[in-house]
């Protein structure tokens, strides 16, 4: 399931109120139109309806790909990352390691989120890539 809401944000250029989509979680199997936006970096962007200025919003979001069993949680800081890790540990304990079939990552930047999705989509293992990168 995706969790999505519309909020009003202030355009940094003209100051008008802009309607913006905020996705607490995005399930790209249920909302396939959002995946290309994640891949081209426009997912977190909002365009002012008045002056057409494009700004980038920053908020936590869970990227969920059910088919490929991928969850990438974008958080804003280390404290949120710690809370997420504890939450996933709790879920694992309560539901008998049900998430073992998933590749779960917690990332601290939108760029990292994009990078993880691209690596997984290309059929690679990001952990293996990190190990390789350290040896180059
Ligand atoms: Zn504007």
Strand content: 25-35%
Binned, the helix content reads 25-40%
Name the quaternary structure: single chain
Q: SSE order, as H and E? A: EEHEEEEHEHH
How do the strands line up in the largest sheet?
1-2-5-6-7
Q: Work out the helix count.
A: 4
For the CA atoms, what is the radius of gyration?
A: 17 Å
Q: Averaging pLDDT over every residue, what do you get?
A: 91
**Domain unit count:** 1
**Ligand identities:** zinc ion
- How many strands appear in the DSSP assignment? 7
Euclidean distance between termini CA atoms: 40 Å
Based on secondary structure, the structural category is alpha/beta
Name the poorly predicted regions: none
Q: What's the story with the biggest beta sheet?
A: 5 strands, mixed
Taken from the alpha-carbon principal axes, the silhouette is globular
Question: What's the layout of helices and strands?
Answer:
Elements lengths: L2 E8 L6 E11 L7 H6 L4 E3 L6 E3 L4 E5 L4 E5 L3 H17 L8 E5 L2 H12 L4 H9 L2
Parallel strand pairs: 2-5, 6-7
Antiparallel strand pairs: 1-2, 3-4, 5-6
The structure holds zinc ion.
Zinc ion binds next to loops.
């Amino acid at each position: 399931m995706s969790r999505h809401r519309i909020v009003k944000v202030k355009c940094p250029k003209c100051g008008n109120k802009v309607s913006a989509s905020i996705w607490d979680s995005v399930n790209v199997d249920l909302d396939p139109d959002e995946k290309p936006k994640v891949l081209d970096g426009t997912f977190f962007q909002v365009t002012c309806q008045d002056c057409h200025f494009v700004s980038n919003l920053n908020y936590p979001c869970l990227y969920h790909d059910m088919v490929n069993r991928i969850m990438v949680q974008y958080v804003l800081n280390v404290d949120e990352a710690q809370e997420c890790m504890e939450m996933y540990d709790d879920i694992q304990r309560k539901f008998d390691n049900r998430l073992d079939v998933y590749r779960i990552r917690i990332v601290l930047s939108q760029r990292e989120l994009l990078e993880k999705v691209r690596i997984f989509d290309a059929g690679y293992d990001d952990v293996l890539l990190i190990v390789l990168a350290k040896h180059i």
